[in-house]
Amino acid sequence: MVLKVFFPSCCSSADSGILVGRWISEQNSAVILAVVHFPFIPVQVKQYLGEVQRVTKVSVSVLGSWSNSKQEKEESLSEFLEDLGTIFCHEPWIQISKEGDSKFWSCSTIQKHSKNPQEEEIILVYYDQRKVMLSHLHPPLDTAGQRAEDASKLSAIFDTVARSRVLFLTDRYDEGPIKLTHWQSDGVEASIIVELMKQASVPACMLLTFLLSLLSGICRSRVLKFWPLSFLWSKLSTCEQLGHRLQHLQVISSNKKAQNQNQLMRKANIFVSLLIDVALGMLLMSWLYRKNRIGHLADTLIPVADHVAEELQDLLQWLMGAPAGLKMNRALDQVLGRFFLYHIHLWISYIHLLSPFIEMILWYVGLSACLGLTVALCILSDIIALLTFHIYCFYVYGARLYCLKIYGLSSLWRLFRGKKWNVLRQRVDSCSYDLDQLFIGTLLFTILLFLLPTTALYYLVFTLLRLLVVIVQGLIHLLVDLIDSLPLYSLILRLCRSYRLAAGVKFRVLEQQDGKPLRLLMQINPLSYRGVVQTYRLPTYSCYPRDSWASLCKKLFLGELIYPWKHKGEKQN
Fold first, then answer.
1. How far is residue 461 from each of residues 310, 319, 343, 383, measured CA to CA in Å?
2. Angstrom distance (rounded) from CA 409 to CA 421
3. Which of 138, 412, 485, 565 could bridge 543 with an S-S bond, Cβ 3.0-4.6 Å?
4. SS3 134
5. CA of 198: how far to CAs of 202, 231, 389, in Å?
6. CA–CA separation, 3 vs 63, rounded Å?
7. Which residues touch 89 (CB under 8 Å, ≥6 apart)?
């Protein structure tokens, strides 16, 4: 039988006394939490441990005695240590003593009430009480069988120390009858700044909750459900990001206490993400309003839009000729070319009509950076969508025309094979056609087949332009997703205090000698950076589509539209 004794390293130099902790009978383990020094009254110790057990719901008791032989030994002290086993009545009674300056310790057990006492092999495990107290054990998600059982055993050790927080509030400055040694014996670890922030956060959270409730009530009102406003709210990525940040503010301003460690870390990650987002937005705003950069940006925007329009006109003129030596249908080519050239002319007129107001619009848009860098990036994505609206129109026209011809050719091809599409049963059935139907079908098939290359070329060109715009918007939204979903607080905690995120423990042998207990040092294995991101990653509401390559190729071949936004209510994790 192996007895495991977990001893806090902070008690190695403690004065002689009794060991207070929890006995885990399922694992045959003893978790030492503190050392109670002499002199003391056993009745007062029992009363104090009863109060601790009532508050923490942890079965804390006296497990044994501790003797530091650096002190001057007295026979009365050794006799008193032996008699403590009969006073507190714990089986087995653990006796640990430090042998002067020697690195060897002696650890033994006494079983007075057992009829057949067995000699047990003892393993003495040192652990850093502060790190175990402040850490949170994350067992691997893919553990099974024995590994999952080991993780649960370690969780019991971590949980025992974490739930005994009340026991660690008694330090050496307390004037009570009981003196303890633990990781906070020299004084309770605290920060005046943190305590002041806790006190000031209560009225601030109440005010913020009230304002957010008003704002959320306005957002849920029926005014925003009418057609123009509901359409803009569902299509503009800025509105989606503002709604996402509003939910984040409601989470961190909630007066409900976090139920577990994951909820606490989620709140902390959201708070740090908002803080860094707003800080980056303020830096961007200060850069924009310095040295009249907004005026220079407005002066550059109109020439760039004109240059893009001229390039599109040159591209259409090239398509209306003989592009790459291809023989096109001249009549359809001229009709499509003039149709798109007219749209470009309308677009240039629209841009020049807005040119006097561009600088003022950019000036007010720059103020939105105070809401965060992600809001500014979403506004940039919406501006790109508005400035390339003519490219989107060209793509829609070309896609609809190409899709119509593809579906027409597929339907006429079924006619040649004597089949048709059954709308009711959603399948292809056999069908007999007369001579007139076959003749008309042949003519239509020939016309659509010879007009397909011209339509396909326009569709291909405008699809490539559309994909270029979608890729630019996708890169912007990927950056927004990175800021929104990255658990920055957890990563900072992993970098500075890695023991707070424990994935497990490892044991290092300190000494091993015949006749002496095996001494081990328990060290915490921190969670990997990838594990931190996977465990604490925040949900995002990205407006960028995440279709697979196969689905995207299928949409391009069939002429289906590629939207730069998601449908409302579609949540992306």
1. 16, 9, 16, 23
2. 13
3. 565
4. helix
5. 7, 42, 50
6. 13
7. 113
pLDDT value, residue 148: 46
98 DSSP assignment: E
- The whole-angstrom separation of Cα 22 and Cα 80 is 22
Q: What is the pLDDT of residues 498-530, one digit of tens each?
A: 888 888 888 888 877 777 788 888 888 888 888
Closest CA to 180 of 62, 11, 422, 433: 11
| Residue pLDDT, tens place only, 65-105 | 888 765 545 555 556 666 666 677 777 888 888 766 666 67
User: CA 123, CA 96: separation in Å to the nearest integer?
Assistant: 12
Spatial separation of the C-alpha atoms in residues 380 and 373, rounded to whole Å: 10
Q: Which two tokens stand for residue 6?
A: 């977990």
Q: How far apart are CA 134 and CA 314, in angstroms?
A: 67
Give the dihedral sign, CA 561/565/569/573: positive
pLDDT for res 86: 66
Closest by Cα among 29, 226, 232, 260 to 122: 29
Segment among 49-58, 220-229, 345-354 with least mean pLDDT: 220-229
* Domains observed in the chain: 3-167 (3.40.140), 291-485+543-558 (no CATH)
Strand 121-127 relative to strand 518-526: parallel, antiparallel, unpaired?
A: parallel
The closest alpha carbon to 543, from 563, 519, 557, belongs to 563
> Are 151 and 167 spatial neighbours (Cβ–Cβ below 8 Å)?
no
Judged against a pLDDT cut of 70, whether residue 216 lies above it is answered with no
Q: What is the DSSP string of 338-407?
A: HHHHHHHHHHHHHHHHHGGGHHHHHHHHHHGGGG-HHHHHHHHHHHHHHHTHHHHHHHHHHHHHHHHHHH
Q: In which residue are the tokens 């441990």 written?
A: 49
Pairing of the two strands 121-127 and 2-8: parallel
Residue at token pair 């629209």: 350
